[in-house]
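PT: before anyone asks, these are the final sequences, not the draft ones from last week. 459 residues across everything. Please model them as a single complex and drop the result in this thread when it's through.
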Amino acid sequence: MSEDQIALLEVTRNLDKTWETLAPRYGVTNPNPPWKTSLTAMCDCLAVSGALPALDRRRAEDELADSLYSDVPSPERQLLALVHTMVSRGLVSEADLASRMRIVRERLEAV
Amino acid sequence: MKKNKASDKTGALFKVGDKVRVRDMPYMFYTRSQMYTRGVVGTIAALTYKDLIAEEEAFNFDGRVEQYYIVRFRQKDLWPGYPFDNDTLQTECPHRWLEPATN
Amino acid sequence: MSHTHTHGNPGDSHHKAAPMVEEITDYEVLEIAVRELAIEHGLFTAEDHRRFTEWAESIGPAAGSRLVAKAWTDPAFKALALKDGLKACKEIGVDWAEPTGVGTPSDYMEFHLLEDTPTLHHVIVCTLCSCYPRPLLGMSPEWYRTTNYRRRLVRWPRQVLAEFGLILPPEVEVRVEDSNQKCRFMVLPMRPAGTDKWSEEQLAAIVTRDCMIGVALPKPGRTVDVHPIQKARRPVKGSHQEAAQ
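LR: through. Structure below.
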């Protein structure tokens, strides 16, 4: 694994589970997954609060989109790029993300 | 956008139609500039708004504001060998990136 | 409820729920996880996030289409839209101050409509980061965000337009508008021939998002944006074409 890669995101990035692949399989015509607007809002909120200015975020996203995540379709690519950038900048930790993902999944699957 | 008229140090504003050149300043002064307009002469197409000088580009955090402009360039002047004479490109520049051009 | 109908079983097509993706992906989980952590770390508030999410869900290109259709049919409105874009937007129910009262950190409150003429064709781009007039057009399409579009449109605009199927005579001035600061732009295309006496609704239907970006021209009968086939990311399993169905 190269230095830039974030192990958790490499595990998360599964091309079989992108919306582009899953939506037609389930006959869903909506072009975007339900979480896309939440992701958009998150980007705006990070810019408003100053935690991650828009230009910084987009520059990082461009770099990652052209390299590490170039094979991932949108909007999964944007999600991975955002999280990658937040982890690189110490805004969230990979360990916290991993454990929170476990908790969230349990919560969603319990319903 | 705070507009502090008391600190407006832009001096004489450019007018629509004025010929201007995008100054070739060190990269650190630009965060929203594209390389492709550096040193090129264009025409003021519009005055847009006055805005605070972006913090990362100002040495003094004294609330200075400056005028922003839409500058129009001929594509032929931006790109060597551009084949269509009439095509243009417009982009937005703050006052301090611009200097009067005589040609 | 009438008992003479033969609805049959609960799975009957009259009552079938809309299809959903029935699995919980790691992407969905990741988005929730990072958002919760961000809120807990104080990077933003849940309240702000909710407000921005609702705003993101409320925007779409229909507002832009209505603005253009109204400008085509109402000369006074068109004059206003060209002179004071924000005011014209307010008249059609779009407030650029939303959702914060001073706009978003990406859209600000400076909006200019770019009027096409028989000798002038506009097309918009943001080379730096893909800024886009979201209050009027909704979220930007994926192709607009790519470095491919952003780098090539300023350098080879006619080639990029040709890839969208738009070819303009050399005498027409193709003007690229690069929105690299706070102004946001949208194209006011020319009203096409064959639309005399059309209602605003009929006109709005042919003003698609691509027409307001400037990569397409409005035409009677053209109510959908169609793009050149993208190279399939994973040709064996599927293509963008399929996913777009």
